[in-house]
Amino acid sequence: MKSMFRSFLVGLAALGLAGITSSSKAEDPRTHAGRAGVYKHLATESLEDVSTPEAIMAVTTPGIAPTRIWAVLEHGEKVECLSCIPGVSKLLYNGNPKTREIAAWWLRRRIFGVFGEGQAYSQVVDTLNDKTQPEQNRVYAANALGEFLSSAGIKHVARSIREDESAAVREASVNALQRLNSQGPNGELGLAMSDSSEAVRTAAVRSALRVNVFTDVEAVVGLIADESASVRRAAVGALGTMRVTDAAGGLIGLLAVEEDAAVRQRAVWALGQIGGDGAREAVEAAQSDPDRFVRDAARVALLRL
Question: 44, 90, 201, 204: least surrounded by Cβ within 10 Å?
């Protein structure tokens, strides 16, 4: 996370942050103990402590430039400030995705004051589960649960995938499962591949590639015949990346009927990754495809077969 915001160091003087010093004190003995638990394996000199509670509180007010928010929170990585938590928690609902991300990053380092009954984490869970909340707030709550990187959030975003009426919330919940490296306690990531929303299905396929424990490969294979070309492209690419040998026959059949050139290109690439009976013949035939990108993909795939 620190590297993501290093480029903003150059602008610190203009932002009036260069003179900020680490004058913060622990507001509560538990704060130090909680922070110590988070950082016990890290060298002190590797952590940022050049901000102050006052600076953090200041950037949680409306109208602050995003770059200033990012810089202050990054440089307050180990600042002791329980009173800052409510203000930073509001940034989880900011319209800027990077602001939401660094707010969650800063908050998840505060064991006391964030994770607990009635605290920031529970408030986010309540927002996600409350269907009377505006859709956008529920989307941001799902994002936050993913960025908190706590496995306790898995069941909540999984429930939203199953039950929330908003496709945007379901999509955000799928992305949260990806961040949490989970396919859901009841295979919700695979379930999302049959969602009525194209965006949710596409997000589910992309997330499957990044979840180490994903097992519902059959759900991805089934999307070869999806009505959406976007979903088919994602599914075909995922099958090639995962080298699903059982998908070779379906990909060969797809090449014979697929109208979308981008899908055909991905299918040729995937066959080059997978191989199997008939793969070489299908790829050789693709060298005569009317689309030059498909032909190029075929030439490259043949080098692997």
Answer: 44
| Distance in angstroms (rounded) separating the CA atoms of residues 174 and 200 | 7
SS3 content of the chain, % helix, strand, coil (to 5): 70, 0, 30
Q: At how many degrees (to 10) do helices 97-107 and 135-148 cross?
A: 50
- Residues ≥6 apart with Cβ < 8 Å to 164: 131, 138, 170, 173
**Count of alpha carbons within 13 Å of 136, Cβ hemisphere only?**
7
CA distance from start to end of the chain: 40
Whole-prediction pTM value?
Answer: 0.81
pLDDT at 172: 98
Q: Does domain 239-305 have CATH number 1.25.10?
A: yes
Residue ranges of the domains in the chain?
1-114, 239-305
How confident is the model over 205-223, as a mean pLDDT? Answer: 95
Residues 233-291: tens digit of each pLDDT: 999 999 999 999 999 999 999 999 999 999 999 999 999 999 988 999 999 999 999 99
Burial environment of residue 259 by CB neighbours within 10 A (0 to 12, 13 to 18, 19 or more):
exposed
